[in-house]
Write a structure and sequence with these properties.
The chain has 763 residues and is α+β, with helices and mostly antiparallel strands. 24% of the residues lie in helices and 28% in strands. Helix 1 crosses helix 13 and helix 4 runs antiparallel to helix 5. Keywords: Repeat, WD repeat.
Length: 763
């Protein structure tokens, strides 16, 4: 009867058990025959209904008298179905230069549904019944319920309307990607709740499709205490494990069965999201859906959603219960927890009526429960571990060997691509397969194929020298609480204020560089003593000059090709070269009045596949990034000189690469016109922006970037929305160099026009 629940077998004698088993076998055998008979009839009925609908649709068309404006110009119309929970309503869609219209054949819920195109904020392509036929339209930014969900009869019609609507959306194609949302979430511009909604949307989850309803995690493990202690890690669920692996004893039993199972093997016989589970939670606000799914009756009273604590306990201990939560548990509408319609949901075995959901002791009422639950979702602990759950549900642990290692393997039919229903010729068999897929549950579309980066949380600072690329959160150094912290906070606020006003950057002065120096310089920097300038040259050498004496002190001949860039930290000099190496030198001064350098000792030689065009250090000097002519970014540990990550992210030479102030991200720009943001810990490219021109150099704060373009202009980029917020005319040739002071209030740029321009922020 479409009920998903554990079957209870009490202790009985061996003879009685044998008798019971024979009865159960006979019962399920007869049930399967009945099911097959029903499916056979259903196939005939479906074929007849489908033929009737297609005939009616072919004979009719959209009534253009429904246009809101006689001047509207129709773009196209076609046959579609409007998808709602458990029902698909056939009709016609028509799109004009002003509106999207849907006219249902039966006139329900109204004669015509109209959506103004200038109100559309988001659109998503959807898979429906495992085929790319769906389109969902939203007129709000954050609501997870759409304004309309349409199923087309062919992908070409769906795509044509999708791209037509997209032309009305500013930056639609670059804004709505998992990468861009990830960067916004990582840097704290999206809450955990908002980010999960976006991921669900991108993974084809919709509140209009109960078989693909949005999924949210259980985040708490304490539903019995009088007070909820969110400072205690034991209060929270282990987000690195699927629900089925949270109880070790149950997991051991499941693994024993899994090892003895023929291929294709699976660990869990039920899914974490299915129509039955969704309606289990929502029966008090959508009773008609459960009645539809349950053949006109509610489920048994003891199997209803009676108590949050009992439901969690059953998810931990039940033999077949592995369900997660739905977004309503973290929203503002608590009506799904209360029986406001006074529904007759039955009486339990203990004699009590099924009414409101029993809440944990720490919640005073339903509103208080949702508020505390939402607070738990946004807590420090969950923010630090939510990426682990994302790996399981939307990420690289969803499938393959990583899923096996994480005990995260479900039935093959729940995965996209598990079966091609269009290849099944027998209509009855195809309908049976689709019915099984739709009722059993579907795994979300996989969004990430590499480990998801961790969120940047306020109490953590730069990555320490000893940390590796797989460092847990505990190895990140805490923010200093020293007496200088107030000064550091003030400096940080000054920087934030400066970047917020970077569009007010104003030219102060300019000068033409006339240099008689007969060697072309690639970069220069002031050493820590404040009295020595190091200059790298395209003639393969590095030259050291004394500022007080105005003369060359020494020459370092350490490369076989041009030295492209240098960086300095403490007593170490890093030189990048087109000879495919970055060399690390320990430089010391003899302390004499002439400040003549006594030695430059080679400590390490970091080899690359091609010439190195740029190099940069993290603020703490613990990490080095190098960018090559082949488009590869390499991240190095400066204490061990080991490669931590290598990412081939550009299609051409990398012009510049630099760490964010918190060392969590790297921004790179290249000859392929692309700007890439890379997560340091995982090596994942989490944002890609295609510019209209090459970006040659930049300074950035982790959210925004001031770039020097090939055109000579300065471009202020909002990396979270992938948009240029200000274009500032600067040089008559490409901007090739940029420097910004520590407070981010002064900028100096240099260009191919042989000019240096000094800039200040207007107050």
């Amino acid at each position: 009867s479409n009920v998903i629940a554990p079957y209870r077998i009490e202790r009985v004698s061996r003879l009685k058990l044998s008798f019971v088993c024979s009865l159960l076998f006979e019962h399920f055998f007869l049930l399967s025959l009945h099911r097959a008979s029903c499916l056979e009839k259903l196939g005939d009925q479906t074929a007849m209904i489908e033929a009737n609908l297609q005939s009616r649709l072919a004979r009719s068309s959209f009534d253009k008298n429904c246009f809101q404006n006689v001047a509207e110009k129709p773009h196209m119309e076609c046959e579609v179905e409007m998808v709602t929970p458990l029902v698909s309503n056939p009709g016609h869609v028509c799109i004009t230069d002003e509106n999207l219209y849907f006219q249902p054949l039966n006139g329900y819920p109204k004669h015509v549904i109209q959506i103004k195109l200038n109100r559309v904020r988001r659109i998503y392509k959807r898979r429906h019944c495992l085929r790319p036929l769906g389109l969902e339209v939203f007129c709000t930014e954050n609501d997870f319920c759409s304004d309309i969900y349409l199923k087309f009869y062919n992908t070409a019609d769906r795509d044509e309307i999708y791209y037509y609507i997209a032309t009305f959306l500013e930056n639609h194609m670059t804004e709505h990607t998992a990468e861009s949302y990830m960067l916004q979430w990582q840097r704290g511009h999206l809450s955990n709740y908002q980010y999960l909604l976006h991921l669900n949307n991108l993974a084809d989850r919709s509140c209009n499709d109960l078989s693909q309803y949005p999924i949210f995690p259980w985040v708490l493990a304490d539903y019995t205490s009088a007070q909820l202690d969110m400072t205690n890690a034991a209060t929270f669920r282990d987000l690195s494990k699927p629900v089925g692996a949270l109880n070790k004893e149950r997991l051991d039993r499941l693994l024993a069965r899994y090892r003895g199972m023929p291929e294709p093997r699976f660990m869990y016989g039920s899914h974490y999201s299915s129509p039955g589970y969704v309606l289990f939670y929502l029966v008090r606000v959508a009773p008609e859906h459960m009645l539809c799914l349950q053949n006109g009756r509610y489920d048994h009273a003891d199997r209803m959603f009676n108590s949050i604590g009992e439901t969690w306990k059953n998810c931990l201990e039940g033999a077949t219960d592995f369900k997660e939560l739905i977004p309503e548990f973290y929203g503002n509408d608590f009506s799904f927890l209360e029986n406001k319609m006074s529904l007759d949901l039955g009486r339990r075995q203990n004699g009590s009526l099924v009414c409101d959901v029993v809440l944990p002791p720490w919640a005073s009422d339903a509103s208080d429960f949702l508020q505390r639950h939402r607070t738990a979702l946004e807590s420090q602990y969950v923010s630090e571990h939510l990426h682990e759950w994302i790996d399981l549900v939307f990420g690289f642990k969803q499938r393959g060997s990583e899923a096996v290692a994480a005990h995260n393997v479900f039935h093959p039919l729940t995965y996209e691509g598990g079966i091609d229903c269009d290849s099944i010729e027998d209509p009855d068999e195809r309908i049976a397969m689709l019915t099984q897929i739709l009722e059993f549950g579907q795994t979300p579309t996989q969004l990430f194929c590499t480990p998801h980066p961790q969120r940047i949380t306020p109490r953590f600072h730069n990555i320490t020298r000893s940390s590796s690329i797989n460092s847990p959160v505990s190895e990140l150094s805490p923010v200093s609480q020293s007496e200088d912290s107030s000064f550091e906070d003030l400096t940080d606020e000054s920087r934030k204020l400066a970047w917020a006003n970077m569009s007010n950057l104003t030219r102060v002065s300019r000068c033409v560089v006339r240099c008689s120096y007969n060697r072309a310089l690639s970069s220069c920097l002031m050493l820590a003593d404040g009295k020595t300038v190091a200059c790298s040259s395209w003639d393969n050498n590095v030259y050291f000059y004394s500022v007080p004496y105005g003369r060359r002190q020494d020459t370092l001949m350490g490369h076989d090709d041009a030295v492209s860039e240098m960086c300095w930290f403490d007593d170490r000099l890093y030189t990048a070269s087109w000879d495919s190496t970055v060399k690390v030198w320990q430089c010391a001064s003899d302390g004499s009045s002439s400040h003549k350098r006594s030695q430059c000792q080679l400590l390490a030689e970091l080899e690359h596949d091609t010439g190195v065009n740029t190099a940069g250090l993290s603020p703490a000097g613990t990490l080095l990034v190098s960018g090559c002519k082949d488009g590869a970014i390499t991240i190095w540990d400066t204490s061990s000189y080991e490669t931590l990550q290598q990412v081939h992210c550009h299609a051409g030479t990398i012009h510049h690469a630099a760490f964010s102030p918190d060392s969590r991200h790297i921004l790179s720009v290249g000859a392929d016109f692309c700007m890439k943001v890379i997560d340091v810990q995982t090596g994942m490219v989490i944002s890609t922006v295609k510019a209209e021109e090459e970006q040659r150099c930049f300074c950035w704060d982790g959210n925004s970037a001031l770039c020097g373009g090939q055109s000579g202009d300065l471009l202020l980029w909002d990396l979270l929305s992938s948009t240029v917020t200000k274009r500032i005319p600067a040089h008559s040739g490409a901007v090739t160099a940029m420097w910004m002071n520590d407070l981010c209030s002064t900028v100096i740029t240099g260009g191919e026009d042989r000019q240096m321009i000094f800039w200040n922020l207007q107050s």
